[in-house]
Amino acid sequence: MFIEPATIALITEVSRAVAGYGRLSPDDALDFCQEVQLTFLESGYKALERFDGRSSLKSYLTIVIKRLLVDHRRRSLGRWRASAEAVRRGPSALLLERLTRRDGYSTDEAIEMIVATSGAPTRAELWKTAAELPPRKNPRRIADRKGEHAFITSFEDPLTAQEERHIKCETSKAVARAITRLAPEDRRLLDLRYRQGCRVQTVAARVGIPPKTLYRRYDRLIGSLREAVSDAASPFNAG
User: Fold this and answer.
1) Angle between the N-to-C axes of helices 57-77 and 5-21, in degrees from 0 to 180, rounded to the nearest 10
2) What residues have CB less than 8 Å from 233, skipping those under 6 apart?
3) pLDDT tens, 66-114?
4) What CA–CA distance (Å, rounded) separates 178 from 180?
5) What's this model's pTM, rounded to 2 decimal places?
6) 115-154 burial, b for 16+ CB within 10 Å, e for fewer?
7) Helix or strand or coil: residue 155?
8) How many beta carbons lie within 10 A of that of residue 206, not counting itself?
9) 180-203 confidence digits (pLDDT tens)
10) Domain 5-79+158-238 classified CATH 2.60.450?
11) Which of 135, 160, 163, 186 would bridge 182 by S-S if both were Cys, CB 3.0 to 4.6 A apart?
12) If you ran DSSP here, which 8-state letter would residue 150 be given?
């Protein structure tokens, strides 16, 4: 499937906006944006084929990429669970804990958001609650089943599913072939980042390349893989 450069640029733009919406750190935002590009590439851009035009493409991509952000957070942090103390103290304590422990807001910011709601406790009461909630250095996690990113509908036609599996398989083969043609150092960088799951900062420290330089290098590598898949698309789609 040929993807217009403008569409690639829009995916990048929306990824950055979603990373900002998710309050990711600059490094995590860069990691997430590159992860989104690779996810779209490996799926053969199937999400774009399901765009029905009932909204703008930007709005549609925002929904899709926000779902990827949820997956990204679950892999990085695990699913957030409220503490027993917050549950015991009720809705305001639960909201305060969620805003500060899961969503990354400061206590100040969280309290200001809560007091703006109807029937909220006073600031003094919320500060007292914040001080009495248990510290949680290591968030509790719920193991997720290992699965692939998928853009699913409520009904999956067997013939369509078979075709999609074929396209995804051929896309994976095209990516694998393209990777074998890369320089050994580039193959190692992709292995560290996407097979072993290392963050770019970790890879940078291991291989001795500045992080900013490494981010640009990963962008170029993903671009070269995208071109290889695009070049290989016509032969396997024709069959």
Assistant:
1) 50
2) 1, 2, 174
3) 888 877 776 766 566 788 888 888 888 888 888 888 777 788 888 888 8
4) 5
5) 0.53
6) eeeeebbeeeebeebbeebeeeeeeeeeeeeeeebeeeee
7) coil
8) 12
9) 888 899 988 988 887 777 888 888
10) no
11) 186
12) -
